[in-house]
Amino acid sequence: MKFSSPVKALKTVAGSFSFCLILCFVGFEAFLDYCPSNALQFLGPNQLKDRPPVLNKLGNYEKEHALRPTVILVGSSLAQYASNLCDFGCYGAPDLNKEFASYSRFRYLTDLLKGAETAAGEHYEVANLSNSGAMLSEDFLIIKEACAKKNPPRAVVLEIGPRDFIDNMTPDPYRSRLSQVLAKHQEPFAWRLDRSVSDNVDIAAEKLSLFYSMRGELHDCLIKIACDNLHHPASIYQASLMAKLAPPSGLVAAGAGAAAGDNNGHAAPGNKAAAADASGAKGEMKFGHIDDAIGNEAMKEYSVNEYKGRYLPINVKKWPVEVDCLKQIVAFCQARHLPLVIVNMPLTQRNLDVLPADFRQRYENTVAAICRPAVEAAGSCVSFIDLRHDNRFVVDDFRDTVHMRSVGGKKLAQIIAPALIDKLQGDRQPTAGGAKFAARSTHLN
Fold first, then answer.
1. What is the pLDDT of residues 271-283, one digit of tens each?
2. Which end of the chain is more exposed for a tag (fewer CB within 10 A), N or C?
3. Tens digits of per-residue pLDDT, 376-429?
4. Torsion angle (degrees, nearest 10) of CA 55, 56, 59, 63
5. How many angstroms separate the CA atoms of 114 and 134, rounded?
6. Given this structure, which CATH class describes domain 48-172+313-441?
7. Is the peptide bond before 6 cis (omega within 30 degrees of 0)?
8. Where do you find CATH 3.40.50.1110 in the chain?
C-alpha cells in the first residue's frame, strides 16, 4: 500500500488503531454483560488466590436463589469457615476438600430464619457469598453486585475483623482481580464529558490492562461458551480446560484458612517463615486438608506467625480506605432501607495479642463510631453485634486462632438469627428472643 504523504499514512494508522480499540471495548463490555460475574469462573488454579470462587457464587446467584427471598452473608474466611463447617457438622455438606471455596449456602442459618417470613408468607434462605481473604472494599462490591440481580437480597449479614482493614498479604484496595472485574462491570467505560481527557484515558487504559491480563482466561471462557451452545463434544481445547479446572485435592492450608496461601493448599510466599516455624512445633502441620477438629499446637503456631505477616506492620495505606468502605456499606444499605447486620467477629486472645494494643483500641473505637449512629437512628435498618469479648465463645470453638469450627459456627448463627429476624420483620412483629439479644449484645466497646 502506498500513501501520498506521511501525514495521510499517519492518519490511516491512527484511524485503524482507534477502530480496533473501539472494537476491543465493545467486545469486552459485551462479554462482561453476557456473563458478568462468572466471566472468570474458568480461571486456572494459578489465579485462584485472587478469589474467583465468589464470582462463581455471584454468577449462580439468580439460578440458585431465584424462587425465595434471600439474605446474603458477606465476609472473609472468618465467615466462610464458621458457616461452612457449621453446615458440615449439621448436614454433612459441603465436602470440605472439594467444595469449600465454592459452597454458597448457610443451611443452618436458613433453618433458624424459619421464624421470619415475608408478607406473602415466604421463608428466607441464606446465600453464602463469603470468600477468604476478602477486604471491606471487596465486600462492598459484592453487596452492590448482588443488589443489581433480578432477585436482590432482602438483608445483608456482614462479618468483619481487624484483618479486613489492614491485611499486608492482599493486593492494594481495588487492585485484586475480583475487585477489578466487579468494578469494571458496575461502572462500564464511557467517555464522559464531566471527566477530564486524562481521567477518561486513565479509565480506558485500566480497562485495556485488565482485558490483556485476562486474555488467557477469557480465551478459555469463550471456548467453553461456544462448546456449550453448539453442543460440541469434548475437544482438545475443552479437555485441556477441564483438566485445568479439575477440583484440587485440597483448597487451603489447614489451620491457616484459605487466605493462608493459594486455594491449592500451597503456602503463599509470605507464609514460608510461618510454615517453617510451625514445623518445629508440637504436632504436625498438614497442608491441603480441612477438617472440623481442634487444631494442634503446630497449626496454632502457624496461624500466629501467619497473622504476624498479615497484621504487622499496620498498613496505614489500606486502613483509611477500608474504613471508608465500611461507611459506604452502611450508607448504601440505609439509602435502600436494606437490613444490615454487622458482626464484629470473635477472635482468640492469642490472635489479638499479635496486634498492638493501641491499634486494637483504635479498631474497636472506629467500628463503634461508624455503627453507633446507624444503629441509633430512627427507623434504623442497621444492627451491630459485637462479639469481640463475648464469653459465650471459648478456645475450643476455634480450629486455629481465628477460624471457627462447627460448634462455634452454630453459636454464631444462633446469635445472629434473632437480630436478623427483628430487622426482617421490622417493628411489626418483634421477637422476644431478638429483643433480649439486642439488649445483651449490641453494646459497643
1. 444 444 444 446 6
2. N
3. 998 899 999 999 989 999 999 999 999 999 999 999 999 999 999 999 987 343
4. -150
5. 29
6. alpha beta
7. no
8. 48-172+313-441
